Every structure is written in structure tokens, then in C-alpha cells.
Amino acid sequence: MYKGLLIVISGPSGAGKGTIYGKVLEKLPEIKKSVSVTTRQPRQGEIDGVHYHFKTEEQYNRMIANGEFLETAAVYKNYYGTPKAPVFEMLEAGNDVMFEIDNYGSRQIKAKYPDAVTIYVMTPSFAELKRRLTARGTESEDSLKTRLGNAGRELSEYKNFDYFIVNDDADAAAEKVVDIIRAEKCRMYRNEQCVKSLLSEHNSSK
Ligand code: 5GP
Tell me: the pLDDT tens digits for 72-89? Predict the structure, then answer.
């Protein structure tokens, strides 16, 4: 177990996890982000190395073969992965690290690193999820159906997650994530070193 806390936020597309992630980072700017690797094309304004490390499929496959990923998943026809080395370096140095990744990636992380804190974000209803996805105006009828179907399947795997947040208000939801992080950092087993050093101070002053 590392000194830093690993926090993973997941949820279906349209649930607002990206917005919540951004708001949490504004409230707790000391938390480090992980820059994911993807094979998808950069969108307007996205900078390589800042928003994602953009790679070709060939480069991506080489990274898989070299065991460079903590997790990797195909999300709607593109590959996404979390590079292992920078994350463990940040945790080792005592930094808290947070990612916003898909459900499948989160499960892989929890399996490899059970100390990770996993949070699932969902809309108050499926009707609301449909409304938000439709309002984006980016989904065809087919893609809308696929995303809603995936959201149902993912939610049925809810037991893989430690926490559940209903996003009916992004600010309130982000506040809940901050509360979870603060509480997790106070867990006794994460503070054993501190307790032991207090006890040793106490014992040596006897
Ligand atoms: P977008 O292409 O819109 O930036 O992201 C699409 C989806 O990929 C989002 O649901 C996001 O959570 C997920 N994603 C982004 N980075 C990663 C990653 O490193 N691993 C996994 N498994 N999913 C990711």
C-alpha cells in the first residue's frame, strides 16, 4: 500500500463524471491527475500530453505488450489506458492521484490495487440519462440505445464499487467526492504510521 490515495471515478457517459472530476480538482488542487493514453483522434483544443497521450493503434499495442498499462479498455471503438509507471511514482511520493475512467478500467484497477477508492456516478434516473445524452446532440439513435444499454449493464455490476453518487447537482456531487476523499484519508489503517510514531513519542517520554 502506498502513502498516497488512488481515487477512481466512473459512470456512464452522460452522467457528468468529467464535470465532477474537474470540480473536485478545483476544490482539492493538490490531487494529481493521470494523463491517459488513447487511440482516438484529438478533439479541437486538446493537447497531446495534457488531455491525453494520443497514440496510433500500433503504438498502443506495443505499450500493452510491454506491460505499460495499469488498465486498458476499449470504449466506443477507441482504446484508452492508464499508464502504470507515473501513477505508482506519484503514489509512492505520497501524492493522491485521481482518474476518471470507464467502468471496465475501474474494475481492473480494483482487482490489481484493492486499496483504490472507486466511486460510481449516475444520473437520478435512466430517463434523465437519456435526456442528457440527447441534449448533447452528438448521439445517433443507435448510439443512444447502445449507451443506455451499456449504462444498465454497468449499473448491474454496482458491487464492484465502493461508493455511489447520484448526480442531480454537479456541485453537490463534487462536494460528496471531496467528503469521501477526506474521510478515506482519516481511516485508521491509513494512519497507522502516525499513530505508531505518537505511541513511540509517548513511550520514550515515560
Ligand atoms: P473521451 O473520449 O470522451 O475523452 O472519453 C471517453 C470515455 O473514456 C470516458 O467514459 C472516459 O471515462 C473513458 N476513459 C478516459 N480515459 C480512460 C482510461 O485511461 N482508461 C479507461 N478505461 N477509460 C478511460
Answer: 999 888 999 999 999 999
